[in-house]
Amino acid sequence: MSDLKAIGEQFVEFYYQTFDSNRSGLASLYRSVSMMTWEGSPYQGAESIVEKITSLPFQRVAHKTTTVDVQPSLPNVKSAVIVVTGQLLVDEETKPQQFTQMFQLVEDNGYFIYNDVFRLNYA
């Protein structure tokens, strides 16, 4: 489990560093079977997901993770569920927005994102 936790934490660090600096660089993390729900809207397949991520209406974004929880997910496949909470700042905003994101990673010649669910947390 500690190895899986380390993999999950490394994944989260890489994901948000890449998201913040070069969103199109996330394409290699998704496959044709990958699914993402972004604020309630579903997307399937790497091309559709990356198109959504790269078309978000901001130029700059900075994520700061608060918590990262990692658990094994499927009994017969190397996989993990990762739940992330944190804050993000976009463009010139000074008040961070709270977010939650869940990933399911599945191993297939390296881990890829099978599921990705993102929500802003409105108070």
Report what the structure shows:
The longest helix is centred in the first third of the chain and has 20 residues, at 2-21. A six-stranded mixed sheet has the order 2-1-6-5-4-3, with helices on one face. It has 123 residues and is an alpha+beta fold. Helix content is 24%, strand content 48%. It is globular and about 45 Å long. The protein contains two helices and six strands; from the N terminus they run αββαββββ.
In short:
It contains two helices and six strands, in the order H-E-E-H-E-E-E-E.
Set down the secondary structure blueprint:
Blueprint: H1 2-21, E1 30-38, E2 41-44, H2 46-54, E3 61-72, E4 79-90, E5 97-107, E6 111-121
Parallel strand pairs: 1-6
Antiparallel strand pairs: 1-2, 3-4, 4-5, 5-6
Key structural traits:
six-stranded mixed sheet; alpha+beta; globular; 123 residues
- Coarse morphology: globular
Average per-residue pLDDT, rounded, comes to 95
Largest sheet: 6 strands, mixed
| Gyration radius from CA atoms, angstroms | 14 Å
How would you classify the helix and strand content by structural class?
A: alpha+beta
Strand content: over 45%
Tally of helical runs: 2
Instruction: Kindly state the number of beta strands.
Output: 6
Q: Report helical residue fraction.
A: 10-25%
Low-confidence blocks of residues: none
Widest beta sheet: strand line-up: 2-1-6-5-4-3
